[in-house]
Each structure stands twice: as C-alpha cells, then as structure tokens.
Amino acid sequence: MALRAVLLDFDGVIADTENHHIAAWQRTLAALGWQVPDEVAARSADVDDREFLRDLLAVQQITDGDIDGWVRKKQALTISMLRDAPRVYPGVQDLVRQLRGRVRLAVVSDTWRENIEIVLSTSGLLAAFELIVGKEDVRSVKPDPEAYRLALSRLGLSAGETVAIEDSPTGLAAARAAGIPGIAVGHRREFGGWVGDSTYFSGLEPVSGLLRHLGLEA
C-alpha cells in the first residue's frame, strides 16, 4: 500500500524539549521546597506530567496533592521557556520541506497542543502539518494507541497507508498497537531493546536516508 501520511511525535522527534521539561518541573517543585535532582527530573521528558508528579507525591507519601494545579504551573513555565528558546532537532526543517506536498503530515503527541503550536509556528513549520493530535484530544496517552487511532480517523486513512516516527518505547508501542509501522529516531537515545522491530535512525540528518527508507528519495 502506498505511503500517504507521515505521523511524527513531537517531544524528542521534532523538538528538543527535554531540558525545558526538566527545568520547568524543577522550578515548579522548588516552590514546594523540593530540590529534585536532574536524574529524577529527567523522567518527566518520557512520561505524562500527571504520572510524573503522582509518582513523586507517592514517594513523599502525599495522597491529597493538587496534581492538576501543579501541572498547570509547570505547563505555564514550559510555555514561557518554549517561547524564549524553541529548539527543533537538526534535519527537521529539511525533512518537512522534502515531505510536504508528497505525503500528508501530522503530529501525534502526548504533549499539550499549545507547546506544539508555539514551536512549529516559531520555526515556520506549522502550515506544513494538516493535523495535530495533542494530550487534550485523548483520554489515554501512549503507549495506549488512542492518539494514533484518532489521527487515522481524522485523516481518513488506514494504518497501512501511514508510518509513525517515534523516539521512545511507549510511542513505538502505541503506533504498533494501532497497526502503524514505526520508525525509531534516537537523537539522544542510543539503539537498544526499546527499538523492538522498528527501523532505527540515530538522527534525521542526512534526511536522504530516511526518505530512501520511506520510498521517497529526493
């Protein structure tokens, strides 16, 4: 079946946001008097904000914390930092330019839509994406396949007509559960068991390699 759409995760595939999330959580939790080390805060780049905070509260044996309230505070800080210093990974601009007009493009992410739109708009990429599925569009985040199934429904495509580009085991698992072939892009994550049966690229540059894999040589 011919490829008709490429579905990209956001954090870790398009945008280099790990340090934004770590710093935002550290500043937010400092207001609670918690000094969270980098290695603990780093988990926030891979899991849902509520899950991250819920686990921290459990360690502190706090059962009545205002999870939604603190997540909102963290999100406000994240937005401020993304506006000041949006960063997309090397190769993203070229990849989008090469794919635009040849296949349909969508973002399927566990992050908030506002985060995605700020970075894409600032980077001049927003108009290239036909669809954005963000955290607020689903009840269950990855590895649940809900976000990918929603994207397929809104695009009117079958799983076999698409491919997902992911940077995490949960993202690849979500795509796989939706029947969508996955491509793993490491950027900061080395090849390992998290890749599963997906094709692995250490990064997006040069984009010719990924385009060749997709059957879309430049």
Outline:
By secondary structure, the protein is an alpha/beta fold. The chain folds into two domains: 5-16 and 88-213, Rossmann fold, CATH 3.40.50; 18-84, DNA polymerase, domain 1.
What report would you give on this structure?
This protein has helices at residues 18-30, 38-41, 49-59, 67-84, 92-99, 113-122, 146-155, 169-177, 207-213, and strands spanning 5-8, 104-108, 131-133, 162-166, 182-185, 199-201. It is 41% helix and 11% strand. The longest helix has 18 residues, at 67-84. Helix 6 links the parallel strand 2 (104-108) and strand 3. By secondary structure, it is α/β, with parallel strands linked by helices. A 6-stranded parallel β-sheet has the order 3-2-1-4-5-6, covered by helices on one side. The chain has 2 domains: 5-16 and 88-213, HAD superfamily/HAD-like (Rossmann fold), CATH 3.40.50; 18-84, Orthogonal Bundle (DNA polymerase, domain 1).
Please outline the helices and strands:
Layout: E1 5-8, H1 18-30, H2 38-41, H3 49-59, H4 67-84, H5 92-99, E2 104-108, H6 113-122, E3 131-133, H7 146-155, E4 162-166, H8 169-177, E5 182-185, E6 199-201, H9 207-213
Parallel strand pairs: 1-2, 1-4, 2-3, 4-5, 5-6
Helix pairs in contact: 1-4, 3-4, 4-6
